[in-house]
Amino acid sequence: MTLNDPSVPAWPAHPAPLSTLEDRVLARLAVRDDRAFEVLVRRHAPAVHRLAASMVGPGAADDVVQDVFISVHRGLRRFRGDALFSTWLHRITLNACRQALKARRFIPLDEAPESPASHDPVRAGEQAQLRAQLAAALQSLPPDQREAVTLREVAGLEYADIARVTGAELGTVKSRIHRGRAALRAWLTRAGFTP
């Protein structure tokens, strides 16, 4: 069944452009309209990529993003809208990252390709070194702390949203983030960086 299939009734046109619609509306439309799904992907892919890169490394992030949006597309019919779309998406992203780590399909962070250098090679080198140290520091955390810290610091989720995504109690989330931040601070200090 395709969008041009005459047996499928036409989806009513929206007066507003798709890009102005809320995620929950787009998610309902995306079940039958690939254009709505494309808007969701364009809107959320950068945040999914940042989260994936911080969890599995930049070398595997593209594969994780692809897996995430395949899962989202397959699961749109089951998305009821009880939670925010972004919360549901973060849960899928977290699961895809866990699968990638479990399958060991990722490039180790210390072997990840560096980003292109900017016009200042010294600054670019310092930034690449700091990124590598931060990635190594994150990887040193226990998985539950790494997830909580990444969801807070990289994805920018509120504590309550992290609790919903991870299925942990709010107090547990706060504790994981506090312990994770303290461990990161200690790790970076030992590595010679002032956090």
Automatic annotation (TrEMBL):
Superkingdom field: Bacteria
Pfam family membership, one: Sigma70_r4_2
Keyword flag Secreted: no
CDD domains, sorted: Sigma70_r4 (cd06171)
Record domain RNA polymerase sigma-70 region: where: 40-105
Keywords: DNA-binding, Sigma factor, Transcription, Transcription regulation
Ranges where the RNA polymerase sigma factor 70 region 4 type domain occurs: 132-184
Database matches in InterPro entries: RNA_pol_sigma-70-like, RNA_pol_sigma-70_dom, RNA_pol_sigma70_r2, RNA_pol_sigma70_r4_t2, RNA_pol_sigma_r2, RNA_pol_sigma_r3/r4-like, WH-like_DNA-bd_sf
Transmembrane domains' residue ranges: none
UniProt-listed Gene3D superfamilies: 1.10.1740.10, Winged helix-like DNA-binding domain superfamily/Winged helix DNA-binding domain
Family in the record: Belongs to the sigma-70 factor family. ECF subfamily.
Name of this chain's protein: RNA polymerase sigma factor
Organism: Deinococcus sonorensis
